[in-house]
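<instruction>
Derive structure tokens from the sequence

<record> Sequence and structure tokens follow
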Amino acid sequence: MPTLLISFTAFVGLAHAADDFEVLPYATGKADGCVGDPVTPLCAIKTLEACQRWSEAGLCRAVGYTTVYLDGKVNRGFAGLAIAKLRIVERRVLTHAMIPAWTGHMGAWVHPDDRPPPWRPGDLALRVEWWDCEPDQLCVRKTWNHPTKEYGEGCPPDRCGRKDLDPSYVLRREGGRWRVLYEHFDSDDHGDLWDAFWNRK
């Protein structure tokens, strides 16, 4: 098992093994073979997240996301020690009836000359369970001026909390790769639309 896949015993009531989840380190690092190669929907989502976290324009372009804004290089301090754990919990292939009048886009930061195309039947909607995990702060503090350890060494990210919202995405397969048309990550932004979407029979 990869070293980043840690025990989920702290997740009370979570009945899934660690192997059910994909892992994305927040610290800039070597791509895992999935990031940057969106041959599956989950690889597309990981590529999108990495493009924003790592400020890598090439990763953004790999999933059809041309942005006028990136977060900047990842914080190499405490935040850079964190990881994300994510997995797809719901998926639906869009039909005409599922596509609302408002179909959104990737946000106000998308380049105005490169808006994603409208959704259409056959596009894929996904809901993703997402956990942010960080190491114990006391452990990290002990490495701050340690004579032999790197910062955070020996402090695996095992303090995990689930995001308040399970993000939703709309993706389209183009050839053998997946493009991200839309990301919903804020309950204040058309949250009712997505509640209704995932609750429909």
In short: DSSP finds four helices and six strands in the chain. The chain has a mean pLDDT of 80. The CA atoms of residues 95 and 121 lie 5 Å apart. The first helix runs from residue 41 to 53.
